[in-house]
Design brief:
Layout (H helix, E strand, L loop, with lengths): L11 H4 L13 H6 L1 E5 L3 H13 L3 E6 L23 H12 L4 E6 L2 H4 L3 H5 L2 E4 L4 H14 L3 E7 L2 E7 L13 H9 L20 H19 L8 E6 L4 E6 L15 E3 L9 H12 L4 E14 L4 E8 L5 H4 L9 E8 L20 E6 L2 E6 L4 H5 L15
Parallel strand pairs: 1-2, 1-4, 2-3, 4-5, 9-14
Antiparallel strand pairs: 5-6, 6-7, 7-8, 10-11, 10-12, 10-13, 13-14
Helix pairs in contact: 3-4, 3-9
Bound molecules: zinc ion (2 copies).
The site of one zinc ion (ZN) has 7 residues, from loops.
Length: 405
Amino acid sequence: MTDALRIDSPGAGERDRFSRFKLIRWWEQERLDRARIVVVGAGALGNEILKNLALLGAGRIFLVDSDSIEMSNLSRSVLFREEDTGRSKAEVAARSVRDIYPGARVRWLQGDVLTDVGLGVFIWADITLAGLDNREARLFLNRAARRAGRPWIDGAIEQLNGLARVFLPGGGPCYECTLGQADWDILRARRSCNFLSREDMLLGRVPTTPTSASVIAGLQCQEAVKYLHGLEVLAGKAFLFNGLTHESYVVGYERKPDCFSHEEPFAWTALGRKASETTLAALLETVRRDLGPEAVVEFGRDVVLGLQCVPCGTFEPVFRQIRSVTEKEAACPACGLVRNPKLAHGLDGREDFLGKTVAEFGIPPFDLVTGRRGREERAYLFDADAPSVLGPAWEEGDLSPRSAP
Ligand SMILES: [Zn+2]
Ligand SMILES: [Zn+2]
């Protein structure tokens, strides 16, 4: 630490980027190097999460964010520069992560986690870190992580305050268990009565600082490191931090027995196919071969087949998930009324669009779909999408069965 101790030609240990971590008794750099980490959001929290992961030597990262960089982001985003304004947050953040740690294999996606990321990504991941600013995306992520049987670490910041919390799969409380009536009211306000998204609600601006982001993202990443080493984490609890008073405390959550997110992860069958190369008819045929001729397909996503204007007698085909269709888009170009979305979330064989591919229907690549006959169900994964979806973060054998770290 002092000049007297400094040596001009560092020893082999000092040339190793991670040598100081290895002084921690339980630290195994290899666990970080091979960890498959999903980061959702590249805003204030996401920047700090990604910076930490790069410094820690995280080897494989999948990053998703739908936004582009604005000037106002630069005060809270260590990975962005002024010349990056207008560019994709995910792309620029991924580049900066590789600048900090060239050993990182990062795949970025400019998209919406609710509609553009297949559940296979969460099955692939060892752990997901969230830098989100809304309950709807957290709820989606919570259900996706539980269905995949994977943990996720939430963070939230506002002004100088924040919280960090870990949700493990299995018997403990989940994010949805923490929601109260006020949260559900806010969630409902994001959707119109026919579930279209309200664009004005998507722009809720929360005052945040790089300092609170740093505190909370630091905790999230530290919990991730501990989880990856099999150490005890803040599971089913939250660390709350008050930046004005410097009070911090841990609260425990209760598991709600009637929570909708407690679907158990189940075994999936690899389809060996891509969503863009599989017709809906072929998918239904596969499911019926396994489960019988009355079996149906369920996507777990509501797709808008089209928008209908009753007064005008018009119908416009859409084939996009309802979460991505806004009220403004649904306005009838002729009369201005909000048209009725015609929805589908599955297939029973009577559809007139079975010639479309699963991708054309509005389902993202590498997604998990369900075949069902009565109470019997089976999950199917579009595993052939994995190499293209995960890019440099993908390795052959990643989807083989494995035990928790
Ligand atoms: Zn729950
Ligand atoms: Zn009309």
